[in-house]
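Bug: token stream looks shifted between consecutive jobs. Job 1:
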Amino acid sequence: MVPPPKPADERARLAALRGLGLLDSEAEERFDRITRLARRVLRVPIALVSLVDADRQWFKSRQGLDACQTSREVSFCGHAILDDEPLVIPDARRDVRFRDNPLVTADPDIRFYAGCPIKANGHKVGTLCVIDRVPRSPGAEDLDLLRDLAHMVEENLTALDLATTDELTGLSNQRGFGLLADNALNACRRAGQQATVAVFDLDGFKPINDRWGHAEGDRALKTFSLSLLRVFRESDVVGRLGGDEFGVFLSGTRDGQLPVCIDRLNDHLTEACVREARPYRIEYSIGSFGCRPDAGTTVARMLARADAAMYEHKAARGGLAVRDPDTTVDRLLERRGGDVAAIAASIWGYD
């Protein structure tokens, strides 16, 4: 068996894949419809939309196969993403790369494989593939059909990316942030790691718009977005939640980690404003909430706790009058769609 090598753009490829927020997500009809069609028109028992992660291939859609993932080391799709053209294996038992592969020698007993790479943001993130348990030699028309169906998958990925990305900053929008943070929270839960959500709200943003115009306001939002991306880790989820409010989900956090990031963020913002000779400072209020997630923890609840803490911080700095913290939590949870009864009296710090 020959394990698939890593492509030259592996780091950017993985970033593009994880930016979709699809890994470990629920089945979706828009992808299942394509694999059902592939299985029918190409007359095969198995059709998959396979996403090639760092150490595994995970099936966003699967027809005719019970497993939801395999290791990348034994994957056929790991080889398929190395080229732009479909990878065709007429008989895996006669191919030196696969003849002793456990997917060939045991269930699902792969003999024929054809996989067409699918791209997202210019990087090959997986394949649409079809599999049979008997050898086959597909014709040109079959491969054209496979390419057309793979293009349909790509169109759905593009639509998903547009629906989850903030146009101005390029960050995830509120929907995209929720999808990515949900995946990260599940990973923290499985690993028993602490997770933290931080919410940022720019102070004095309206005066920037009023005095220097909306174009300058947009410029300030972009600067703040870039600063967040440079300060936080690539594994952290950064998003624009709306207006001048931003969120960061941090996985595997330790006590004292967030304050260090905030110090770096302040330095970065100060340097940017001085370097660009801006006539104003970019300042913000922040709230955070961290915990070791259990089955009842949700991103919505964590956001609500961090949001409420941010409003308390803003009030303490004279940026907002808050009469009753409980009322603030009620209003924020209603906006986030959370459960008011689940929010404890303390709204700052760690559980």
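Job 2, same session, no restart:
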Amino acid sequence: MNRVYFTEDHEWISVAGDFGTVGITDYAQEQLGDIVFIEVTKTEGAVAKGDDVAVVESVKAASDIYSPVSGTVTEINPALDGEPEIVNADAMGAGWMYRMMLSDPDELGGLMDEAVYRAYVDAQ
């Protein structure tokens, strides 16, 4: 069963074993508005926790997406290239941005679970 973790920057990572799927939360996509472009800028090699991995552009703003943990990007969601609005429709499902192999699963301990994340968002 996958476990989902969240960052203070509103990224999520769904983890199964040593692999994670990363995207932005529903809260993040609502704040951005209509998403018009997504580019995963780090497509190969290792990334460290907190590295810029993607850029999301919306009608309101551009926002960097940071890696929630360290690892290696293994796959980019090809559907987002032609249909970035998928993130608005299903941010935590079909709107995932990239998949990665984790290099330090202990870093997950520094992320929030869903209950803590919901409280964090409610406090904003």
